[in-house]
Amino acid sequence: MKLDVLLGLQWGDEGKGKLVDVLTPDYDVIARFQGGPNAGHTLEFNGIKHVLHTIPSGIFRENVVNVVGNGVVIDPVIFKKEIEALTKLGVDVSSRLLISKKAHLILPTHRLLDQASEQSKGTNKIGSTLKGIGPTYMDKTGRNGLRIGDIHSDSFENRYNNLVAKHKKMLAHYDLQYNLDEMESDWLDAIKSLKKLKAIDSERYVNQMLRDGKKVLAEGAQGTLLDIDFGSYPFVTSSNTVSAGTCTGLGVAPQSVGNVLGIFKAYCTRVGSGPFPTELFNGTGEEMRVAGNEFGATTGRPRRCGWLDLPALKYSIMINGVTSLAMMKADVLSGFETIRVCVHYEYQGERIDHLPFDMEDPSLKPIYTDLKGWSEDLTGMTAESDFPESLNDYIKFLEAELATPISIISIGPDRTQTINRN
Ligand code: GDP
Ligand code: IMO
Ligand code: MG
Q1: By the 8 A CB rule, do 118 and 130 touch?
Q2: 22 Cα–ligand 1 center, Å
Q3: Which residues in the chain land under pLDDT 70?
Q4: Bond preceding residue 234 cis, omega within 30 of 0
Q5: Per the confidence metrics, is the pTM higher than 0.85?
Q6: Active-site pick, 21, 41, 75, 110
Q7: Nearest ligand to the C-alpha of residue 21?
Q8: 8 Å CB contact between 78 and 53
Q9: Fewest C-beta in 10 Å: which of 147, 200, 288, 358?
Q10: H-helix or E-strand containing 406?
């Protein structure tokens, strides 16, 4: 079997959690391959709304194994809270969850370093979620990190203390007041809970599952435009969010990657700083924010909103090798008389349809095509045949422009509000 991938094509929060939960019944294993608790993946069903940060979004379904891969970074405190919240809802987490021994640990001092670094950048800050993601990946690539497999070792405490001592020296260069004691005792307490979970060589497990003919879905976090290599650098996260990230983040070979389902909102949002060519600063942007309830699932920050950006989407489709698309939050556009879509950019006096290296160049302007909107409420619809004509036109227009089939339309946050197209 080949591994399927589901990932975001924009700046995150496309609705990955919802869709993974919807698709989980078709899979045996759901695996996260990168990122950490900077992610907030929302699931809604039976009147329950739940946000996951590190745990894969297949966790609510029975008979499915959820894997936290080696490419993920784990904050034991947040992880423990996630497990406690799931346990309260009656989910038997420990029987459904496997963690890679090679996944790296976020230390309390990584969070402090994140905070100190952001604070020192002033108005140029990345807008990080401040979960310690960047400093943890820096220690990973700097070959200083601590991993899940280390927590049982006799030298763990010693190595922890050495790393913290190094971080304290780094923190001394910044103007940050902090009290590590409480953070540290919570962290060490959470490490004890982590020891009870099943840590494995997840690369061997995932490959064995594929060899056994089991179906594995890799769940992306963040989005393509936040990728460390291909995103709007430096306003990005610190991992490879793209499909290639499944190879390094789960240990599967490129030829083992099968379908890549790229998911996008029917418009665009971004939380944190960085370029966003189609951002709306007027009442229309505010209408989208309210209609789409665009507030961050991890930080609660209002998300910046704007029209769909086709040059950006085409770029994401190319980088990921997307085989089919899912359009999320179509219901949010109900009631907009005109729907605008950015089809090109104007850049340094020329018309271009790719993302330029310098996305912050003030000459970069979106060029729009206007489509007719629809007023019907989509949220109760159960089949594609119920869709208003203008929505069908929007879908057809996007499929033609993107040269990729749109196989799923999401029309509300609930599991059931999902329409499969043939
Ligand atoms: P993720 O990070 O990609 O999993 O997305 P988030 O959970 O951060 O943000 C997506 C938000 O949109 C969540 O509040 C979801 O419940 C919600 N959502 C997902 N799909 C739809 C949809 O089709 N329509 C509406 N109205 N909301 C949706
Ligand atoms: P999900 O998986 C949206 C953004 C932050 C910031 C930048 C770097 O829910 O889609 P970091 O904490 O990684 O140092 O932040 O990336 N960011 C996200 N934006 N959704 C996410 O995850 C995000 N994870 C990080 O806002 O701009
Ligand atoms: Mg999110």
Answers
A1: yes
A2: 12
A3: none
A4: yes
A5: yes
A6: 41
A7: 1
A8: yes
A9: 358
A10: strand 406-410
